């Protein structure tokens, strides 16, 4: 009898323990259902009240009243508002940004099953394709690496010094959803971009018509590389890589998007990814400076327009964020067809 009583009480307490644990566990209703996630790569100081980096204008517009949500393995806290818009600073470079994105997407605190992602930040642009202050939507994300490189003098004279390495075909490029890209361009077509005298003065050092124009909204390939490359030779190589991969012309150089896309491809899919970059520098010097002088400019020789560009990014991107959230019943199950008038 004693043994049966012990067995009964042991079973009873085990059942109660399991019940309590289950009651305390999070349910799907506790998860934050994310409609749009905004990923920035760095912030200069605080999220508000000082010089703005990539996240501050997003924070001021969407998260000023939000509390930080810490996620193990992420670079910075996540912020979410009551409308289902969330955002965070992921960290710079392929490894840091993608590690943060993976930690966040795998966190049980969030439901990303129907989320749209805006990968947002500053970037460089070739002077024959863009200018300071431009805001660019990506049609393709291409990895600058994942191949073989050699010094020019060690190969055939005048020939390219890069070749792709086999085995990376599925991760070296991502074509972003063309229908979503069309929506981005449609929603932002009437946005008026900010500019500055300093940026305009700097543009005039370049002979290219594209470099000398006012800021505009552009579209093309965003090239991801941890190497902050400079000079006409490496810019030409970036364009060569996009042609090898049958992507659109290279218009933006950045350090994170293709790596983040790989994480999202494994966790949520790529159909709802958007890459939005603002050009704050050219990827090469003007005719009167060397590549090294451009890489390490003397005082007064840097490009202006940084403050205006980080604001331009949010002016453009918020049109898409607001439209998706305000029309969630249409966007929840996928990108709707854009009816062109």
From TrEMBL:
Record's signal peptide: 1-25
Matching InterPro entries: Nucleoside_phosphorylase_sf, Pur_nuclsid_perm
Keyword Transcription: no
Keywords assigned by UniProt, alphabetized: Signal
Gene3D superfamilies linked: Nucleoside phosphorylase domain
Pfam family, one: NUP
UniProt protein name: Purine nucleoside permease
Taxonomic source organism: Psychrobacter saeujeotis
